[in-house]
């Protein structure tokens, strides 16, 4: 949309055009000194004339009714000639979350809480108002200059079907409940990816990183639990129990140092030998995939191991070994040289005699039975098993999704529940639906997805990934987009959930 020769929009002086989206164009504007905004720079959002009025109304509703501090403040609302709607919102002068994480080597647990807690509150507020945020990601979190994070990307709002009242606790309309909870589950999955992206930048030698893994594992389990129970309020409480909030530094210079582990009390701090490009030798590995029900046991065990005499003794051995590494390397080189010299001077062994082949059999074909016996039929899935196994255990979620969907279809066709363990995640919603379909002989709506339906990678963070799917309807040939959530464990990728 062009604004030819127009220096003001809705009474705000336009400085420059910032960009355009599918529904609107953004301009950097400036208010007059006498305005309520105090003459500060603002964002002027001009909607296209063809934009659905309900979409505009949804954004206004969120900006005026959501929890304070969740979204940029709505400064003004105006209608231009021709019915063009203009929103004037607070300008966020800080960077987006991906830029902060890429510019920082590590962040402290308190900073992670300050980043994530407002996002949790914002998402809970959206659900309470009857909306889902279909584009929530690290890219839609932007900071104000003071380090306060806000959620953006309101163009991805989608109304929750069957929403009946405050906090979304009213019963859904018939036939709409599943769709509503599917949208909320999808929001939870996107939030879990965002959490993992933030937690990946923690100091991995810090005990808080291990507790963070248990926290996000618990939230992922609640997102796929059947029946579904909202858990954002509990997630916020657990975040603050995990660590007190701390101010977020938007630059690398103020990165706080990680706490010193308790086990270095017996060894001088900083004396532990270093592996090139890695953490100190003997640093505890991050506990991955901790189950929510056993998180407290894992934490108590980790704390006990930190103080155990065996761990202290192991650290002393590593330090002593590092001090003697030089002489050991010299001795190893001498031994290697002596071995090479001995092999060079030793006469070669005479060649082994060729294997004797019974006469009359060297050129004969193997006998073929006159009547075929029972033979094992190898399915196409078994023939491609090495390639599928490699894709499932690999690092490419898109290839893994194709292999997993192909294997899952074979399991459903064979009506084998045990076969599904190699493709569906244990305890997941998709495994429960597939098992029910096999037990009852009914059809599974998501069983129509094939490897050919897999599209591009939408999100990938740690052991979670979301891959696009293109559902082809049975009637009319229309296509309906969907998403596939995958989780990677020790055995490779597994299917967790299909959602719209």
UniProtKB/TrEMBL annotation:
ATP binds at residue 45. Keywords: ATP-binding, Nucleotide-binding. Gene3D superfamilies: Transferase(Phosphotransferase) domain 1. GO terms for molecular function: ATP binding; protein kinase activity. The keyword Membrane does not apply. Residues 12-260 form the Protein kinase domain. It comes from the Bacteria. Residues 268-287, 349-392 are annotated as: Disordered. This is Protein kinase domain-containing protein. It comes from Cryobacterium tepidiphilum. The lineage of its organism: Bacteria, Bacillati, Actinomycetota, Actinomycetes, Micrococcales.
């Amino acid at each position: 949309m062009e604004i030819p020769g127009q220096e003001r929009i809705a009474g705000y002086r336009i400085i420059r055009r910032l960009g355009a989206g599918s529904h609107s164009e953004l301009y950097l504007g400036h208010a007059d000194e006498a305005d309520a905004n105090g003459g500060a720079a603002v964002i002027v959002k001009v909607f296209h004339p063809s934009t659905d009025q309900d979409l505009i109304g949804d954004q206004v509703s969120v900006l005026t009714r959501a929890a304070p501090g969740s979204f940029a403040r709505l400064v003004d609302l105006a209608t231009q000639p021709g019915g063009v709607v203009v929103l004037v919102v607070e300008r966020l002068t800080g960077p987006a979350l991906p830029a902060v994480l890429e510019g920082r080597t590590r962040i402290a647990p308190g900073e992670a809480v300050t980043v994530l807690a407002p996002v949790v509150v914002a998402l809970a507020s959206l659900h309470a108002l009857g909306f889902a945020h279909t584009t929530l990601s690290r890219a839609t979190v932007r900071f104000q200059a003071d380090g306060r994070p806000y959620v953006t990307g309101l163009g991805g709002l989608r109304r929750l079907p069957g929403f009946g009242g405050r906090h979304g606790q009213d019963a859904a309309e018939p036939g709409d409940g599943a769709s509503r909870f599917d949208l909320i589950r999808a929001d939870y999955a996107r939030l879990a990816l965002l959490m993992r992206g933030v937690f990946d930048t923690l100091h991995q030698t810090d005990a808080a990183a291990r507790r963070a893994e248990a926290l996000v594992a618990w939230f992922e389990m609640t997102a796929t639990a059947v029946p579904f129970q909202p858990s954002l309020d509990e997630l916020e409480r657990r975040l603050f129990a995990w660590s007190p909030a701390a101010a977020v530094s938007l630059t690398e210079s103020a990165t706080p140092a990680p706490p010193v582990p308790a086990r270095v009390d017996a060894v001088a701090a900083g004396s532990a030998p270093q592996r090139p490009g890695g953490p100190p030798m003997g640093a505890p590995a991050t506990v991955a995939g901790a189950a929510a029900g056993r998180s407290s046991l894992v934490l108590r065990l980790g704390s006990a191991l930190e103080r155990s005499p065996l761990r202290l003794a192991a650290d002393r051995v590593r330090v002593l070994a590092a001090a003697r590494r030089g002489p050991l390397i010299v001795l190893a080189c001498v031994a290697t040289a002596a071995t090479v010299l001995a092999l060079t001077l030793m006469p070669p062994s005479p060649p082994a005699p060729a294997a004797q082949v019974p006469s009359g059999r060297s050129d004969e074909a193997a006998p073929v039975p006159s009547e075929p016996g029972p033979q094992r039929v190898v399915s196409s899935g078994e023939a491609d098993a090495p390639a599928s196994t490699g894709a499932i255990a690999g690092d490419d979620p898109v290839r893994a999704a194709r292999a997993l969907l192909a294997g899952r279809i074979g399991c459903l066709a064979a009506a084998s529940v045990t076969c599904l363990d190699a493709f569906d995640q244990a305890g997941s919603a998709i495994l429960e639906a597939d098992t029910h379909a096999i037990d009852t002989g009914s059809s599974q709506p998501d069983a129509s997805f094939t490897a050919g339906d897999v599209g591009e990678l939408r999100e990938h963070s740690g052991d979670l990934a979301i891959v696009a799917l293109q559902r082809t309807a049975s009637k009319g040939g229309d296509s309906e987009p969907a998403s596939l959530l995958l989780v990677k464990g020790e055995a490779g990728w597994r299917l967790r959930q299909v959602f719209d």
